[in-house]
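Narrative summary of target 7.
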Amino acid sequence: MSKLPQEHKFIDLSDYGRPIAKIIAHSLKHTAATPVHVTIGFIISGLIGVYCILTDYYWFAGFFLIFKSILDAADGELARVKQKPSYTGRYLDSVADILLNAIIFLSLWYVTNTSLWVCILAFIGLQLQGTLYNYYYVILRNKFNGDRTSRVFENKTPVALHGESQRQVDILFKLYKFLYGIFDKMIYALDPRAGFGKPLPKWFMTSVSTFGLGFQLLIISVMLVLGFKALILPFFLSYTMMVFIFVGIRKMFY
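Modeled conformation, tokenized:
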């Protein structure tokens, strides 16, 4: 099942790896591989990317960060292909993403002269950007009967789906709430009535998709390859201002 019905799909700039992700998912359809195995694969790819940053192999770093993004899409695709959605996979994916984001930003701080405070604020900004995008996207998915594994408000531990452990879901949900709860609350405080407004237009969602993790990793990769590693953290810190601009547009027109 697609995340959105065909008539409501938009150009997602962060989802450039989807075609390759689908190929990977279909190639694994009749194997013993599970979405969790693919998630572990993107964790490994992300860590290799970090190692390459620390050792100045920036072309390889860019490759593995982008490959991480592709595998990040492939785990969800595999769950849909095998028709085995799970909350275990959903929360493991998110927990792995935020921890890898933190490690990537710390590695960029380590190899540049950037202030640690800029690193911390840039990381907070990165997460706020991603949270706003996910917030608007999940609202669309729920409104138009798309993929419902993600919820607009993650306030209650979900009941484990068939074939997964409730204990694993409980643990991963608590980790998710601990790591993401503050960002969810901040975005909700900025735009609490987003779910009651008019459906967000495709052009708007395409613009907000620059906040998606795939696009963020692409920006990091390109800047590394072009020799702009010292500008990456300041860029994400300054780009956080677009959160307020997008929220303002949503409130004013939609």
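The two ends are 27 Å apart (CA to CA).
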